[in-house]
Amino acid sequence: xxxxxxxxxxxxxxxxxxxxxxxxxxxALVALDREAARVLAEAASSLDVPYTFELTLCPCGNWGSPxxxxxxxxxxxxxxxxxxxxxALKQADxxxxxxxxxxxxxxxxxxxxxxxxxxxIARKVERARSGYTTSIARVLHCFTADAQKLLLKAAExxxxxxxxxxxxxxxxxxxxxxxxxxAIEASHVAEAAGxxxxxxxxLVVP
Length: 206
Description:
The chain is mainly α. The chain is 53% helix and 7% strand. It has helices at 11-23, 34-46, 73-79, 83-91, 103-110, 118-130, 136-141, 145-158, 162-179, 186-193, and strands at residues 27-31, 52-55, 94-98. The longest helix has 18 residues, at 162-179. The protein is globular and about 50 Å long. The chain starts with 10 loop residues before the first helix and ends in a 13-residue tail after the last helix. The model has no long low-confidence stretch (mean pLDDT 93).
């Protein structure tokens, strides 16, 4: 298995794990690359992320990736309605796709370039946890006017439930803590909204 720092790319997935680790949130990794997803799931476990779902989009695991998929549309639909998927849709707070390496990322790997180490990320997460609050009332008090407007827009666009809204709010607080920001800005809400499963709808069979 690759070491975490050898896994070049997938910066969005790595960031999602950092956010989940700070906020005590559950994360769903949609594995377009199973090896990368395994590496990230192990990293999440070492950072005490409460739970990590490793999901494939089809039985063969290639749907949504550059590799040819051998599954029928019906097989894909049944797969995405399995118990594991249903549990993830109920419980996961953050959703992110894990991609295979592109040409530049593969070149970096072959040239010996390495990403941020898991130890460095663990230190970053530990610092952020000291500034993170679990009080929803205190978190909401930190929202700027623009952040509130964007959250309302996201709630309407994605038809968020109360549970979804709370997950986004907790996610924005984790992002704020990671950046040691004094307030929750619209950029924090935009990132948190980007982790909703609705952003993966092009990969999911209706």
